[in-house]
Amino acid sequence: MEIKVLGCSGAEFPGHRPPSFLLDGRILFDTGSLTNQLEIKDQLRIENIFITHSHLDHILGIPFIADNLIFRKKKHRVNILSIPPVVRVIRKSLLDGSIWPDFTVIPNTHEGILSLIELKAGHPIMIDDYTITPYPVNHSVPATGYLVEDKSGKRFFYTGDMGPSDQTWKKMEGQPIHCLLIEVSFPNRMKDVALKTGHLTPRLVSNELSKINPYPKRVFIIHIKPQYSKTIQSELQKLNLTNLRLLKDGETIKI
Ligand SMILES: [Zn+2]
Ligand SMILES: [Zn+2]
After folding, report:
1. Cis omega before residue 214 (within 30°)?
2. Residue 19 alpha carbon to ligand 2 centre in Å
3. Residue-range domain boundaries for the chain
């Protein structure tokens, strides 16, 4: 599997882009950096977009990709998939026709550019050669991470935004993770803010990693708030965690 990091930052700042991860050019996870990063021909290859939660930095590319696809002559539809509470918010707040046209009924009700699809937590869905399972995480709004497995049994897990989440790791127990994309948004001194808003600090992420059995082969830290990036980096270094490093926008990960 190859993951292209269109963005992996915890904010939009010059040189820092919100989260979007493209799997083998075809399946997208979150849409924080989408239409401003991919050529139109590459946008047209995407048929399925998995969303972790309804916060704006994860959904903002949905209206723009729909708008780009409507003008193509060739029919191209995109599925937007997530757990039911996330799909409900997208339908009600993003695609209700008030801030952007409702692309689930354009060009017509039977063939909308976008289809919203509800996933059942813990239940795998097969897309192409991948098995993708949503495992809900603890955040300030309903949210889910995604475990993705390819035909050869290689797995990665993308947490999206999360605070401490005991249940998530318990449910995934015994499934080795070859690559973990996990968030750290705040430095250690902001632990209270992190817990209140459903995020992690370096110390909190270290505690999360100790719950994962077996320990992931590689760990990439994402969603750092750019203003704290130096502090977070040095705090992570001090913790001396195995096979862990910060991920950067534009990188490609091979699994
Ligand atoms: Zn969030
Ligand atoms: Zn976020």
Report:
1. yes
2. 7
3. 2-254
